[in-house]
Amino acid sequence: MIRIIKTDASQPDFKKLVAFLDVDLAERDGEDHSFYDQYNKLHLIKYALVAYEKDLPVACGAIKEFEPNVMEVKRMYVTPEKRGKGIATKVLSSLEDWARELGYQKCVLETGKRQPEAIALYTKNGYKIIPNYGQYAGIENSMCFEKFL
């Protein structure tokens, strides 16, 4: 049974999972990692989720305001041994519900082309590819998505 809690970026289990995420992304992104890392600072995140299975943290995700009425999905991660079990979809759905509760109408996100699992997750959950926005405009490895809530 998966239990998801609402928290913020200061929560220890969220920070631990994000540290695992950053190691994974550093491997996938290689030399590009420092570029992406600058846009993933935790002090900017007020809305975070941690998913637990039997009191063990197994996944996380977050949202932060991108612009009025738009939240950006950030810091999605599932531990390797728990992947493929639908946990990421549960976290993403919970983030979308939270964004709706807060009055937002759309979610956007960026992911890397070297993350096929993430691309599949977002596509499966109704996200559409959009032109790369903001700091990701012109970045070859980035793919940006949006979903109206």
Automatic annotation (TrEMBL):
Record keyword Transcription regulation present: no
Gene3D superfamilies: 3.40.630.30
Alphabetical UniProt keywords: Acyltransferase, Transferase
Domain of life of the source: Bacteria
Pfam families assigned: Acetyltransf_1
Domain named N-acetyltransferase: residues: 1-149
Residues passing through the membrane, by range: none
Descriptive protein name: GNAT family N-acetyltransferase
Taxonomic source organism: Sediminicola luteus
